[in-house]
Amino acid sequence: LFAKGLNGASVARVFGTVRAVINLALSEFGLSIVNPFSNVYFDQSQGVKKRIPVKPEDIEKVQQECYKADDEKRWLIALIADTGIRLGEGAGLLRSDFVEQDGILCVNIRPHPWRSLKTASSERLVPLVGSSKWAAERILAQSTDSCFAFPNYNDGQRTNANSASAALNKWLKSKIGRGYTIHSFRHSMRDRLRAVECPSEVIDQIGGWLTHGVGNSYGNGYPLTVLISQMNKTCINTLNGNTACQSFPE
User: Fold this and answer.
1) Class of residue 45 by CB neighbours under 10 A (exposed 0-12, middle 13-18, buried 19+)
2) CA proximity to 86, closest of 63, 58, 109, 54
3) CB 219 within 8 A of CB 120
């Protein structure tokens, strides 16, 4: 796996899958033997690079370039920039995944046959502000026969997130230099929410991160009004001279 160019984290995920499959087989067949993949040692840090969050001034620069280009690729970048959703989550969206609830335009991150979600906690409703709201409005304004928000990356069978990653990272590099990838916006969103003193449970709900603790499995989570109030505080960009964030009473 290392020879194929995978880093330690990717190798660990592969081993985790193999280990789970064999554990299931051992349980189903009632075999009292040790899983040979349970204690395999390898350097999980090999080749792993720390993701660098995109700086606020670079986020603003990227957003302005997206407004100028105003095309499918830039809509996807703009959507990710002010939500922190994963590239695969965004690329596999349907137009109908953009919904209005309680007067708030949101994106419904849910599994689809052509694109699964990383974890169960990844399924969520994220309010749209700033460049992400602009992107959603531009997508919905298009006259198209496709049900997909980003038809160039979907053939109905699978979402080609790798193709999206290659194209968008290349464009991003040309605008703000090396060191950043599309996934860096996800790291930035967590830092931006921290900077406005957003409670960690709210951050986890917005980003689809797992919040540990028995109590966190109770109830339906924070209402959208709380989420959008916190996300509005993170907005750093303006569109046509006006704040691009959605106005909503505190």
Assistant:
1) exposed
2) 109
3) no
Q: Position 195: which residue type?
A: A
Of 136, 145, 143, 151, nearest to 98 by C-alpha is 136
- In whole angstroms, give the CA distance from residue 82 to residue 132: 5
CA–CA gap between residue 237 and residue 189 (Å, rounded):
14
What does the alpha-carbon distance between residue 66 and residue 187 come to, in Å, rounded to a whole number? Answer: 20
Q: What angle do CA 31, 36, 42 make, to 5 degrees?
A: 160
Predicted pLDDT at 24 = 96
CA 10, distance to chain mean position in Å, is: 18
Report how far residue 109's alpha carbon sits from residue 97's, in angstroms, rounded to the nearest whole number: 7
State how far the Cα of 190 lies from the Cα of 197, in Å rounded to an integer.
Answer: 11
Alpha-carbon distance of 221 to 211, in angstroms, equals: 11
Beta-carbon contacts of 105 under 8 Å, excluding residues fewer than 6 positions away, are: 98, 99, 127, 128, 133, 136, 137, 246
Identify the pLDDT of residue 178: 84
Helix (H) or strand (E) holding 188: helix 184-195
Phi, psi dihedrals of residue 126, rounded to the nearest 5°: -115, 120
Q: Residue 105, Cβ neighbours under 10 Å: how many?
A: 18
Mean pLDDT by 10 residues, the chain (250 residues): 90 93 96 91 85 92 96 97 97 97 96 94 96 97 94 95 95 92 95 96 94 77 95 77 47
Whole-angstrom Cα distance, residue 202 to residue 71?
31
